[in-house]
Amino acid sequence: MLLAGAVGDVGSAFWLSQEALRAAFHHYQMHGSTGEDGLGRLLLRDLCLNGMKEVVEWSVGASKEEVARLAPAVFEAAGRGEKEAVEIVERGAERTAGYVGVAARRMGEGRPRVFLQGSVFLRQSVYVREFERRLKKVCPDAVVEVCRRAGAEGAALLALGRDVAIEEEEEVMEMEEMARALTEQRNPRSTDIDTMTPEELVEVFIREEDSIRKALPRAANLLGRAVRIVTASLRNGGRLFYVGAGTSGRLGMLDASEIPPTFGEPPETVQGIMAGGVRALYRSVEGAEDRPEDGAEAVVDRGVGPGDVVCGITASGRTPFVFGALERATEIGCKTILITCNENRVRRTECDVEIDIPTGPELITGSTRLKAGTATKICLNIITTGAMIQLGKVKSNLMVSLQATNTKLQDRASRLLAKERDWTYREARAALEASGWDLGALLETSTRGSRGSH
User: Fold this and answer.
1) What are the transmembrane regions (predicted)?
2) Which label site among 158, 201, 340, 410 has the fewest CB atoms less than 10 Å from its CB?
3) Catalytic site residue from 289, 327, 362, 420
């Protein structure tokens, strides 16, 4: 048995991406542009950057994993017939096959079983075929299979001949679990949605949102408990970490990003952990949510401690990355919260609070960015806003701790201060400018009715 992928980085996703970056940089240096539909433009798109100069800056601090995630762009370019990308893919397959051929000869294997290991082989069938074609030239009788498990675990299972059986068993279990999820059921009210007029579509969407209004009250007490847990943690110097994948992860990141400007809290107070990292915010990262160990590792790497709260978000109630993070957080001693939109979920946890919002089948089957996404956003709004209110970040219904970091917020702060202290708008703005836009301090030290006294 030979395990391809253990011969170094040559031919790996990281190697392919590195070669693509080199080719794109070279093209830019020679021609001063990325070229039409070339590798450079695809890399910019996947990195969500605006120019090759920004790619240079990004590459200096990029991790090996971050670079490797550019591999799909290489295969996309190759599929379009982009010469440089085609050459990179062919070169990677040829070198990997060459290494395997050398290893087979040294081991005296006339008909070696070759297992291809790594995400690039698992997800890029065209690469597997290219490797097989190259390998047949040096090992005509080789038998090639793709290893469905990563790392040492996959190698060990292959040696025992158990990889395929275990994979098939797990796939069956996952499919059965997913099939039971409320979010995966077909919605009888939208079976003819593809024949509706735009006006009819709008009416159906509006009526469907009513299920959120009916589902949320059922979770009111649980949401209240979540607010109490988060408030207690933050009051004692702890932090809140949202963990999610896809839409759920993006919603957590969005809510976390709004806390500093709205309530004046540092970015460390509420943080998001996203399966697939920052790139997954704007582009799907294949398989990022499928490994529970990645979620567990992320919790550790982000420095989550016993005084923190980890809130897992998964509309389907089954995302492995999320449950891996929650399990590790429990081991660390954190308080944990789970938010799902599937009360039929099979997997249960030992979370301190488990909130299931049964929004029902989506208008587009399985598209949880719709009702499930809306309900999730409301839950996150309630938890963090409720905690900030409890911590004194809001007076009456005014955001007195906001950070006036742009024109709109400076205007809002000026109007708020003017109204609360019975000052003119100009007086309030002058006081805020003099204080470095510290609205909270002015509201605490000033006295209502002291117009003009500053």
Assistant:
1) none
2) 201
3) 289
